[in-house]
Amino acid sequence: xxxxxxxxxxxxxASRSQCNLNHLGKLCLWTGTNYTGSFYADSLGKYCTTDGxxxxxxxxxxxxxxxxxxxxxxxxxxxxTLTAGQERSNLGISARSWRAx
Length: 101
Prior knowledge:
mainly beta, 5-stranded antiparallel sheet
């Protein structure tokens, strides 16, 4: 499955509440730490995917799968793992790609 939802808002309007019950089964991502910046929600699959050239600094996994986010394109580089339902206000990396495992 490809990404199905992309919502871009102003950084001042971004918040964790953007990732709600409408996003069950998806990975919610923000370009800034603490759920700020542009928001993006991706329908996960067991393949590597990206949000174009955007990088993401905070995330919430609204899926039952474990998700691995990577600092590099094509699921390379430093990796951060989110378990099912886990959220992180600061990933510690600028995630460029991700996949469910």
